[in-house]
Amino acid sequence: MERILNNNTVFNYYEYSTEKEYEQVIVDQAKHIFGFQSIYIDIKKRIGDSIITIPDGYLIDFSFPVEPRLYIIENELSSHDPYKHIGSQLLKFAISYKASGRKIKAFLLEHLMSDKDLLSKVEHGLKIAGYRNIDDFLESIIFEKTVAAIVVIDRSTAELENVLSQLTMDTDILEFQTFTTDIEKIHKFTPFNADIRILSESPKSDIKAEDLDTIVIPAQEEGFEKEFIGNNCWFAIRIHASMLDKIKYIAAYQVAPISAITHYAEVSKIEKWNDTNKYIVYFKDNATPIKPIALDKVKKGLAPQAPRYTSFNKLNNAKFLSDVF
Fold first, then answer.
1. CB-based contact 61:38 (threshold 8 Å)
2. Amino acid 31: pLDDT
């Protein structure tokens, strides 16, 4: 079992005894997990008539300030059956959502109107996004935009990936783990949409979240030649649900010894990859070679270890990797 060593103190992996205990920690840490500008709504209401489901919560996400989005939240322990618990809940929600939109709007509005701080935060966000009022805002995120889901779980598994791959609803998996000593607990997680939110939250950023339209993937030589060049595609990519309809281009960063972005392609379509919650990106045409955008020799930590997002405009004008991100 994993351990974390910090200043000669060993933190052991903490096994949550109940889902209720786990969920309460998620609620308590929601601002850190989902972002201080987003709103976690801890509300459990039945939706649906013939098919009834009760999501664990809702997230109004402002990762894209001009394009806020609604997510449903499922907080789960990996010890539970992913088919019976997670898959069943999300499938029921997907079926019931359309017919339950008015009910969802009513209880979200009631919840927000009862909390002055939350209402103020929403009103600030909806003004940035260009909505007339909170009614107009909720109408848009519930009825006009595609709802997605976030599964918060202590450990992601291949079984869970398989379950989510069968659903039409876009779903992000977020691992949240706890480690403990006899007197102290610490949490390990990757913040939701962190690489997107930092663009709108950082005063030093010269790119806006809404400008993101390009995904940069790290590629080994063999896979690059076979798939990116030979088959005009790239697969097994983990892509945020919020980015699926925004990606217009894909670029390849060839790892050492090349250590540079050397090609890009216009995206034709993005589909689920086999029985996973990852994706395959198909190109419209052959990849286009460009003057290599080299890894900076002085700056450290820039080489992509996983997919990263940027804008095609920044990619097109970049000389070094630091100009891309």
1. yes
2. 95
